[in-house]
Amino acid sequence: MHDAEAFAPVSGRHLAATLAVGVGAAALIGTISWWVQSSVVGVSPALKQQIVTVQVYGVPVGALIFGFRPLREPPFVLRGAALRYLLLAPLALAGVVAVTAVLYLLVSPLTGDLASSARQGLAIATDAQRLAGQPSGPWGVALLRGIVVAPLFEELLFRGALLGWLAKHLSVGWAAVSASALFGLMHFYPVVMPYAFLFGLAATWLRLRSGSLLPGFAMHALNSVVLLTAGLLLLK
Fold first, then answer.
1. Which of 65, 101, 152, 221 lies 20 to 30 Å from 57 when distance is taken between CA atoms?
2. Prediction pTM value
3. So what's the pLDDT on residue 2?
4. What digits encode the pLDDT tens for the residues 124-142?
5. Once rounded to an integer, what is the mean pLDDT over residues 107-118?
6. From CA 121, how far away is CA 181, in angstroms rounded?
7. Would you place residue 113 in the very low, low, confident or very high pLDDT band (cuts 50, 70, 90)?
8. Which residues are within 8 A (CB) of 96 and not within 5 positions of it... i.e. 6 or more apart?
9. Taking the CB of residue 148, how many other CB atoms lie within 10 A of it?
10. What confidence tier does 7 reach under pLDDT thresholds 50, 70, 90?
11. Which one, of 235, 229, 234, 224, lies nearest residue 153 by Cα?
12. Nearest to 58 by CA among 149, 146, 141
């Protein structure tokens, strides 16, 4: 485990200030973009929403990169990893899906059958239903956001800067669990939270074992593709 690289000290003030700048700038840019697209350009509602969503994710990515540069150094360590960890990414994702399915089966007497839970989660977590019948423009922007921009933001934050800050105050294990729990809570909807928590644990494990964010990012991007494909098949 690459503890020295994974847990380079991250200042809480630095992290909070970086996120505040990123969120504030994202809100400002998103608002201006929405007005320009609505009043000046006349972009369709679906495309406009996707463009603003990409900006809302992308601006904080820029803030994190600027605030904790360079990317190849801690706390991000976004650089090449051993091939075995990249190959582990799809296996880890398969494990997350399997464990989540078992968990949902166990609680199905309270929450409903597995298929219903899966459809509900996919409707929330993907654009399969929201963009049904839309032209290629909104879909293209949504794919950029879902496969690249959002996974990059979440890996930089939860498996990078936030994990580094938590490790200053907690043991390795508790830092990993806490970062994963916050990742789960960020997804807000109860049907999605267990999957997000388990995904966070798996991505954090890859981060710690490989010493790089790259395997977790690859797993995250693959997750977006798999969930969207499942959504397109199950939410017809």
1. 101
2. 0.91
3. 47
4. 999 999 998 899 999 999 9
5. 81
6. 18
7. confident
8. 195, 198, 199, 202
9. 18
10. low
11. 224
12. 149
The span from the CA of 140 to the CA of 133, in Å, is 13
For residues 187 and 210, give the distance between their C-alpha atoms in angstroms, rounded to a whole number.
26
| Under 8 Å between Cβ of 191 and 121 | yes
User: Stretch 108-126: mean pLDDT, rounded?
Assistant: 85
Dump pLDDT digits (tens) for 30-54: 999 999 999 888 888 999 999 999 9
